[in-house]
Design brief:
The chain has nine helices and ten strands. By secondary structure, the chain is α/β, with parallel strands linked by helices. The chain folds into two domains: 146 residues, 3-Layer(aba) Sandwich (Rossmann fold); 137 residues, 3-Layer(aba) Sandwich (Rossmann fold), CATH 3.40.50. Strands 3-2-1-4-5-10-9-6-7-8 form a ten-stranded mixed β-sheet, sandwiched between helices. Strand 6, helix 5 and strand 7 form a beta-alpha-beta unit. Helix 3 packs across helix 4, helix 5 runs parallel beside helix 7 and helix 8 packs across helix 9.
């Protein structure tokens, strides 16, 4: 990558979902020699004056849990790669806002998060936190589903061999593709570019044949652009134009190819041949068992 990944932020609430995100974050940090920042956010409501003792007690409990959470991840880092620098931090606040602000202030390059956390009065719902971070962050977010690995999977078992890079030809997808190719070069991975011809749009068109032709042409242009980037970077690449709803096409391709990572933009634009990339990305993140590297359109080029 022309601009290296120097720092990775791993938010945690000590849930299984958060630890799944931590595994991927640590593995990526080890492969890129990035510094690791581990953050746990204590989300305690303001007391009304009548519940001061109860709030103080809850805060103390949550802060103790947060200490345990960051220490667990820090120990995972040290066990896998003792040469990595680790910073642990506990903050009070609204989780997604605190994560976003920390990433901005520390100039974090990538945030790695689980897509599901532990619910209950003493835990944040990490899934909703992750979605809010995805929608608002200016930093790429690696969203890791809880079923991406088995409990026995160690950090050293995490693979980054095959990437799926869906595109709709939009500016957002193009930026995500740049990241996908750059990551693949750094990690010596293969890129599979994918474009979906959404037939529902064809059936609604006044001129279905012309619409189908336009969509297919748009797909060829989008795939060729990724091929060219990959060839220039010396990255192995394949390209496919498939037919069907974008989310279904992406999920099917990820499953059939057995990819290790899906790289997508979080914002696209509507128009001929372009699905609304943000909505598609969120649905893929919710449904897939494959980690999704989500790139906002505001992210700096890699």
């Amino acid at each position: 990558m022309s601009r290296p990944i120097d720092s990775i932020l791993i938010p945690t609430d000590d849930s299984e979902g958060a630890l799944a995100g931590a595994k991927r974050g640590i593995a990526l940090a080890s492969r890129t020699e990035a510094d690791v920042h581990v953050l746990s956010v204590v989300d305690v409501p303001h007391d009304s004056g009548e519940l001061t003792d109860a709030v103080d007690s809850l805060r103390s409990t949550l802060e103790a849990d947060a200490e345990d959470a960051v220490e667990t991840v820090a120990e995972m880092v040290s066990a896998h790669d003792p040469d990595l620098d680790v910073t642990t931090t506990i903050k009070r606040g609204t989780p997604f806002q605190t994560i976003r602000e920390y990433a901005k202030r520390r100039e974090i390059d990538v945030v790695t998060m689980g897509t599901k956390g532990r619910t209950g009065l003493d835990r944040v719902l990490l899934g909703s936190v992750t979605e809010n971070v995805l929608r608002t962050a200016r930093t790429p977010v690696l969203a890791v589903p809880p079923n991406a690995d088995t409990p026995e999977t160690g950090v050293g078992d995490v693979a980054f061999d095959d990437f799926l890079v869906p595109t709709d030809g939009s500016d957002g997808a193009a930026i995500a593709a740049e990241w996908g190719v750059a990551l693949a070069k750094r990690l010596e991975s293969m890129v599979h570019a994918l474009y979906s011809v959404d037939t529902s749009r064809v059936s609604r068109a006044q001129e279905p044949d012309e619409m189908l032709e336009a969509l297919e042409q748009n797909g060829e242009v989008a795939i060729d652009a990724i091929r060219e980037q990959a060839d220039d970077a010396g990255v192995s690449v394949s390209g496919t134009i498939a037919t069907g709803p974008p989310v279904d096409v992406i999920l099917t391709a990820a499953s059939e190819r057995g990819v290790d990572l899906i790289v997508m933009g979080t914002h696209g634009r509507t128009g001929i041949g372009q699905w609304f990339l943000g909505s598609v990305t969120e649905n893929v993140v919710r449904q897939t068992d494959v980690p999704v590297f989500c790139v906002p359109v505001s992210a700096e080029s890699p």
